[in-house]
Amino acid sequence: MSRPVARGARDFAASQPLPDRREYPPSRPDVSNTQYAKIHGFSSSASTSSMPLSEPVPRQLRHRRAIRAEAYERGDGLWDIEACLTDHKPRDVALASGIRPQGLPIHELWLRVTIDRDLNVVDAEASSEWVPYPGHCQSASPAYRALIGLNLFRNFRRNANRLLAGVAGCSHLTELCAVLPTAAIQAFAGDVWNVREEGGEGPDHDGAHAEPPFQLGRCRALRFDGEVVRQYYPRWYGPIRPDLPGEGSTKE
Questions:
Q1: Which of 9, 55, 229, 252 has the most crowded Cβ, counting Cβ within 10 A?
Q2: CATH 3.30.70 describes domain 61-187
Q3: What is the rounded CA–CA span in Å between residue 88 and residue 105?
């Protein structure tokens, strides 16, 4: 599993000097994503304006949770979808199991599913690298083998919750299940599935007749009677199609 923290991280990290408290949180980049895009010649349509969050009132960071998902195409034709959840506090924190020094995570949890091109889960594993109750939280990891046999596109979140909610699993690892379907769909878009105007590929495609690009009709911006479809996918512009799911990118 490719990770920023190697196995045995607990011992390694404990041996490292703790960061100066002034270094936390990390400073924001000097150039924002929007500024970077403009510098390199990318810009949004003249008719579109960005809508950043409003300026916050004075405040202090007390906790940071990060969730990252990555997709890898394997040499055997399968794909790995890997998600990581971390929790940090910008101070020493008293846990029931002892003091967790600033700079060390409260949680660092990993979940990996291996899927085929039809989004069937053919393998699954979980790892709990950093936990608040060492030696105990890790006992939930083997339960995530239960994801094998599910399909990321067909009721995956519902089925994962049914199998792993409550004491059957780890609350936070089960939370990670929710990001897997759309991460896989983003990975497959344009690589495994056709997302261009001609359409014709996707998890529902049976080859019997032309289908619109997979992403159409699955969010507000890409509704069939909307401006994006009219402008970029005119072949498919028209009334809303009732045969497509109306909530998000996967059938739930």
A1: 229
A2: no
A3: 5
